[in-house]
Amino acid sequence: MLNRSKRIFIVLIIMVILIILAVLLFTIFFDQAIIVRKDTIYHIQSNQKVVALTFDDGPSPIWTPQILDALKAVNVKATFFMLGMHVQRYPEIARRVADEGHEIGNHTYDHHGLIYYKPEELNRQIKDTERVILNVTGEKTKYFRPPKAWITGQEKKQLIDLGYETVLWSLNSKDWVTFDDRYIIKYILHHLRPGDIILFHDSGGVFRPEGGNRKETVKTIPHLVQLLRERGYRFVTISELLKLQIKK
């Protein structure tokens, strides 16, 4: 009886380990945003070679300034989807993003998954973040990106009522996994199309909304910009990208 119990226990442990590994592999190598793209902005049809760089989870006192320096060196404007609590914590960094001409979007206040929000909680997350970004930067946000791309159809409708368009992405750099810059660039060059929106991060760890190492992200920016410009691409913010969309 004891041996049988031990065998069952060992099997259960193995099953748990396999499930954890499966979830990790799924998260790392599959882009879950593909599942919820309906009724969101993730790519536009355009006859121009344009691409939008976007950064999530900031601002960070360590990585956002380095990313801003890299963008400034190559004269590129991007869109930063910020967390309200980080804007409140690092107002001078958020202000620099706005002062240097980048666009700011709403990424909720504390990065909790949207599938756990009641309507009133989502409303509070959006409005609290909107208010702190406006107070710190003077910018009124109109684009929203859900943390981890977790969002329901009902939440998309609620966001429209709140005056927001939901923005996802067509290319995920997976920079939070700390892939090196050569891998990130190779992946993007292989899959890029005109009108793409590329996801990067300027903060955020694997299991928490702050921290993480963005060294490879910083290294990626100048090389990626150079290579894409050689292919005839130019870089725009989300607002600029939408103006270039071919009307159907």
Give short descriptive properties of this protein:
six-stranded parallel beta sheet; two-stranded parallel ribbon; 8 strands; 12% strand; 9 helices; alpha/beta; 248 residues; TIM Barrel
Structural write-up:
The chain is an alpha/beta fold and 248 residues long. It has a single domain (40-243), classed as TIM Barrel, CATH 3.20.20.370. Helices cover 46% and strands 12% of the residues. It has 9 helices and 8 strands. It has helices at residues 2-29, 63-73, 84-89, 91-99, 119-137, 153-161, 181-191, 215-230, 238-243; strands spanning 50-56, 79-82, 103-106, 143-144, 165-166, 171-172, 196-201, 234-236. The strands form 2 sheets. Strands 1, 2, 3, 6, 7 and 8 form a 6-stranded parallel beta sheet that branches. The protein is globular, with a radius of gyration of 19 Å. It starts with a helix and ends in a 5-residue tail after the last helix. The model has no long low-confidence stretch (mean pLDDT 90).
Mean pLDDT: 90
Largest sheet: 6 strands, parallel
What share of residues is helical? 40-55%
The SS-based structural class is: alpha/beta
CATH level-1 class: Alpha Beta
Question: Per CATH, what is the topology?
Answer: TIM Barrel
Q: Kindly state the number of beta strands.
A: 8
| Strand content bin | 5-15%
The H/E string reads HEHEHHEHEHEEHEHEH
Q: Note the gap between the termini.
A: 69 Å
**Radius of gyration (Å):** 19 Å
Query: Please, how many domains?
Result: 1
Unreliable stretches (pLDDT < 50, length at least 5) are none
The CATH architecture name reads Alpha-Beta Barrel
Assign an overall shape: globular
- In CATH terms, the superfamily is Glycoside hydrolase/deacetylase
